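Help: read this over?
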Amino acid sequence: MFNLTYEFKLKPTHAQSQIFEDWLEINRRVYNYALAERKDWYLSRSCQINACSLKHEYIIPADTPRPTYASQCKALTAAKKEFPELKKVQSQVLQQTLKRLEVAFVAMWERNHGFPRFKKSGRMRYECFPTDAR
């Protein structure tokens, strides 16, 4: 069995390209928020409890579970009710953004890549629209 992949080059109008840029910006914000959540959790556990500085360390309760792809997808569903601009982008596209972050963390742990970085404005260049063509 093999997968067949199609790649299309879009020629959007100015209004359509503005919509795509808005989607990319929303994806960038979701990525950065999820990365910040994971980074804060990680840094809150990186120092010994008797040696932590209150100015430089993050204090998150010890029973808080590690943020994962599944937990962040679940939180994304709840965030859509609070932030209506997230509804502009398909949920699968936002989930693929979180999946991209998960892949970056797996690469960090398993292949000794560096810690994932925050994306600057204009640095999100593509979106993934997953479909099942069965």
